[in-house]
């Protein structure tokens, strides 16, 4: 009896833990990927915008200096 109960509990625990862990892992991976992607996009856009502004300013400066 006790062995059966323990086996049942262990099986229940495992079946409960595995989906929970998987869900947590997936949630963590998705969140991590999303954060990384957003960071990459923001960084890329920022550097791109800064480069464009600098290029524009230098072009304007060159045009005005002439």
From TrEMBL:
Protein name: Uncharacterized protein
């Amino acid at each position: 009896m006790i062995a059966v109960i323990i086996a049942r509990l262990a099986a229940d625990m495992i079946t409960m833990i595995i989906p929970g862990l998987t869900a947590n892992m997936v949630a963590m991976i998705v969140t991590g990927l999303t954060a990384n992607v957003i960071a990459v996009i923001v960084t890329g856009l920022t550097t791109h915008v800064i480069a464009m502004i600098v290029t524009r300013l230098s072009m304007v400066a060159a045009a005005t200096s002439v």
